[in-house]
Amino acid sequence: MFAVDEKPQIQALERTAPALPMLPAVPERRSFDYVRHGTVDLFAALGTATGKVIAKLSAQHRAVDFRDFLDEIDRQTEPGLAVHVICDNLSAHKAPVVHTWLLAHPRFHLHFTPTYSSWINQVERWFAELERRCLERGVFCSLDDLKSALEDRIKVWNDQARPFTWTKTADQILDRICRYCSRISEPAHQDWERRKGGHWTITRDGGEALGWIALGGMDCDDGIAGVGCWVLPAARGAGERIGASLHPQVTTRQALSWSDRSEAT
After folding, report:
1. ∠ CA(90), CA(92), CA(95), 5° rounding?
2. Rounded to an integer, what distance in angstroms lies between the CA atom of residue 225 and that of residue 250?
3. What is the pLDDT of residues 159-176, one digit of tens each?
4. Average pLDDT over residues 93-102
5. Mean pLDDT score of the chain
6. Residue 194 CB contacts under 8 Å (≥ 6 apart), including other chains
7. Cα–Cα dist 40/13, whole Å
8. How far apart are the C-alpha atoms of 162 and 152, rounded to whole Å?
């Protein structure tokens, strides 16, 4: 059984400056600008029983490219065995050219994850490992450098491959989701709730969330001076800015009264 998917548009990025390592109380820092030397697509088939990966690099991820990857899986799989392939609902996986190939290879059986549930495919977990150990901090001065790094990483993985195992049952996962949803839906017990990164949630006395304020100021007697902050309504998407940048001397208590009247200016 193989968990199969594509990782498209992997970028060969060359940072303009080396990343600065972490220091005590200082996070890792890197330059925001880079040079992109092209992209490559990666097809991967994770053997769920062994953890070994069959991979193929491609310039695109069309239906014919997926068919060619199925050919690669066929070549590397012991003859006579039935092959079950788990994949998502990408249109390329259901194209006529793939149907024709499956008819000519009756030992192959495709199984599709439910819509919007491709994350349950185990190969996605392997892609996360590839991103963390190879791509996230990688510097690639050419597309060939990127391809070589990917091939080397896949070889290292296969040399010490082991399968992924689920450590929780489906019921345990669903129970945890239910507990989390219950916790975040409870009304706030305080008018002010401190958040990470200098964010405060603003609520009415009844617990209704008015929004939150991104703070950039200092403590003062009447709250916290909101230097260049924005009042964001809870009903709108995070990051959508309404209202205006507050004056440096405007405190969050004043901002609260303004947002309550929807008159932040």
Report:
1. 120
2. 6
3. 999 999 888 888 898 898
4. 95
5. 77
6. 200
7. 12
8. 17
DSSP string, the chain: -EEEEEEEEEEEEEESSPPBPPBTTB--B--S-EEEEEEEEEEEEEETTT--EEEEEES---HHHHHHHHHHHHHHS-TT--EEEEE---GGGGSHHHHHHHHH-TTEEEEEPPTT-GGGSHHHHHHHHHIIIIITT---SSHHHHHHHHHHHHHHHHHT-------S-HHHHHHHHHHHHHHHTSPPSSSEEEETTTEEEEE-TTS-EEEEEE--S-EETTEEB-TT--EEETTSPTT---S-PPPTT-BHHHHHHHHHHT---
The pair of structure tokens assigned to 70 is: 């199925």
Q: Could you report how far apart the first and last alpha carbons of the chain are, in Å?
A: 60
pLDDT at position 17 is: 87
Q: Which amino acid is at 34?
A: Y
3-state secondary structure 201-221: EEECCCCCEEEEEECCCCEEC
Q: Which pLDDT band holds residue 128 (cuts at 50, 70, 90)?
A: very high
Q: Which of 55, 4, 2 is nearest to 163 (CA)?
A: 2
Strand 2-15 with 83-87, pairing: parallel
Greatest Cα pair distance in the chain: 78
Cα within 13 Å of Cα(166), Cβ side: 10
Highest mean pLDDT among 87-91, 199-203, 215-219, 246-250: 87-91
Query: Tokens in use for 186?
Result: 């409870």
Q: How far apart are CA 130 and CA 27, in angstroms?
A: 22
163-201: b (≥16 Cβ within 10 Å) or e: eeeeeeeeeeeeeeeeeeeeeeeeeeeeeeeeeeeeebb
